[in-house]
Amino acid sequence: MDAVREIRNTDWRNSLNPNHLISKTKGDKVIWALVVLLALVSLLAVYSATGSLAYKNYRGNTEIYLFKQIIFIFAGIMVIYFAHLVNYTFYSRAAKIVFLLSLPLLVYTLFFGVKMNEGSRWIRLPLINMTMQTSDLARLALFMYLARLLSKKQDVIKDFKKGYLPVIAPVAVTCALIAPANLSTALLLGASCMMLLFIGRVSTKHILMTIGLAMIPLVFLVSAAVIRHGKATTEDVGVKKSSSTLTGRVDTWISRVEAFIYGSKDAVDNDAYQVNQAKIAISRGGVFGVGPGNSTTRDYLPQAYNDFIYAIIIEEYGLMGGAFIMFIYLVFLYRCIRIYKRCPYAFGAFLALGLSFTLAIQAVANMAVTVNLFPVTGVTLPLVSMGGTSFIFTCLAIGIILSVARNVEQLEGKAPVA
After folding, report:
1. Is position 354 within any domain?
2. What is the pLDDT of residues 254-285, one digit of tens each?
3. In this structure, are residues 145 and 95 in contact, taking their beta carbons and an 8 Å threshold?
4. Window from 84-93, 118-127, 227-236, 350-359 with minimum mean pLDDT
5. Are 97 and 228 in contact (CB under 8 A)?
6. Contact (Cβ atoms closer than 8 angstroms) between residue 349 and residue 336
């Protein structure tokens, strides 16, 4: 018994040994390196962006948010590590269950979640007193389930009734439940799914038909913004909020489109204010930036540590720093495409590609909003914005991608993904 106990203690100590952990780390080494790079960027950017906020809220303790980010990064890397050790076929078996669980969570969030800016996007987790954006779980569950469906229906994928309807139905339901409180996330999720369906050999005419139907409400929003701008006067601008949650969100969408097209005349328009401050940060950054920790716009930008952290990065590290961040995400997408091309099984290939699409599109959307190429959306910069449950779900998605890469290595005789 003592010998058995000693062996177990030795195994436990070895499992916590950093060298043992590194030796067990498999998958695409480039993706691992990109994760570490983004984590380091996140530490620098979050520490700089939250300095004044921490000083105000915690009586001069400017490191509080830095320590929290370190904890989230450590937890996120552990999530990636353990998720990549799981055989990716497990995610196929769990996909349907997780997806079906995510739908009632979205419904609950829509009606009983934590409300902010006329939208209900979060639920409060018991015991740990944290909020979770259920759309993050739903997005991950949807891509797992969609990859499973695409892999199983390749023989009939061109058929509208047998192939297309079963794969588009989960996308439509999920986006419809997310859209009332978070239209931008629903649109980005829908776009990622359409790209995955196109690569999954779905009929192009079916995809174009779906895009056409989805464009109808978007055309309505743009038309409403143009009409309202034409009728607006100085007196009635800013007095457009409704007591109805749904009506209030529609008004917010129209206002954002209107501000994006024409600019805002409302002095208290928070979205326009953030975009203007982001422009100031970018103009101050120039080519090489003002240096780490020297941002001044962080004191005026409400979401400097979250939605608009890319503006702080450009201000402190310049256009070169901003281009470097873009390059990291492009390399990440490229490596995931390489995994897709080398994976011999359809589920793993679609899973890796779908998750990489959604992370890359989210990053592009965040950066586009910061430089005013896209209306304000409220999406974070993956692995860089200040940690939360969204950070953990991003890490879980990367862990699943690395699980596919690890199994590709094993199938190819442990040859690295080149």
Report:
1. yes
2. 777 777 777 655 544 566 788 888 889 999 99
3. yes
4. 227-236
5. no
6. no
